[in-house]
Amino acid sequence: MKPHEHAAAFGTLDGELRLGGMPLSRLAARVGSTPFFAYDRGILDARVDLLRAALPSRVELSYAMKANPMPAVVQHLATRVDRIDVASALEMQAALDSTIRPERVSFAGPGKAPAEIRQAVAAGIIVEVESTTEIKRVIAAGDELGVTPRIAIRVNPDFAVKGSGMRMGGGPQQFGIDAEQVPDVLKHYASAGLDILGFHIFAGSQNLNAEIIAEAQRRTVDLVSELAEYLPTPVRYLNLGGGFGIPYTEKDRPLDLEAVAAGLHALIDGPIAERLPEATPVVELGRYLVGECGVYVTRVLDRKVSRGKTYLVVDGGMHHQLAASGNFGQAIRRNYPLIVGNRADTPVDENATVVGCLCTPLDLLGDDVELPLAEIDDLIVIFQQGAYGLTASPTAFLGHPAPAEVLV
Ligand SMILES: *Cc1c(COP(=O)(O)O)cnc(C)c1O
Question: What Gene3D superfamilies does this protein map onto (predicted)?
Fold first, then answer.
């Protein structure tokens, strides 16, 4: 998708990008400083509505908070999704501070410390165990607290998903218990005083291929149907993961959500109805929910020409948005979509390279981008920044101030 297509999703007002119903420069004046992240709740709500309309009603939506843990975003989603998935004690606290009920919170991720597990068990959160060590810690916490812990087994599947930006299942992994070990583990811990709700399989992130996602979900249901025989109770929780991607580069096409939904309908009417009738299927999404509602806004501090190449130096950079610089798991760096936000309706008339204010050539936000002529104090807007932005970036690097974040 091209930058202007992303801009069209927000719309323009007085020749500027519209954010939260106002022209960008007015929002920037209200925020009071650049750079900043803005998350547009209209776009966020539209994304939830799109998912609800497409996915079978039996499928529950979980928000994977690590994509964007800003408390206002978390609370906004807490009233709109069915569940929240957390991956640390701080995220757990943010979920517990929202209006979501604790039994609707799940806790995944390798290396859960005994204190974190105890906190989750005490709150009644679903602990998605990633190893037998974690199972022992959960049992110990339950004994100590006098409660029955609710858990799900995170399984490292015996298949891998192609086409993901980051693969998180299949082969050797630090995530989950290897599928072939799960039967023995379940036999061993069947009467250990745990309420084992079901399984969680998350195979990868940032996938734009609906067919591959649907295939992973089919194989997940097959695998869980086999593992279900070793569970003392029926499977009630069937976390299918997610990994739905969003288009970052010009050649990326948006995910065909209808095709993913068709696959889920078929699974629910077929193997889930036959073999897992009591299971609630859960799709767990971070990036797809929040990625597109967010922009990163920076101000042009300098405009210079070096040996024929025009540079726009902005007051933000990779310390706030590591992924846009290409340093967050991309094999090949490609430009994220960006525009001059206060000249959203002005035609392009130069090629400029947008760099951040850090003292490293890695701090590249847009290489040789077609833009209208930008001047000092103009506002450069990068799209698709609602997920894995601020909290996935090395903010301490070079000691610049932290950016503001606003939900508008
Ligand atoms: C990171 C993560 C997610 C979210 O992934 P996205 O690609 O952002 O949707 C979901 N589940 C688990 C277990 C994760 O670790």
Answer: Alanine racemase, Lyase, Ornithine Decarboxylase, Chain A, domain 1
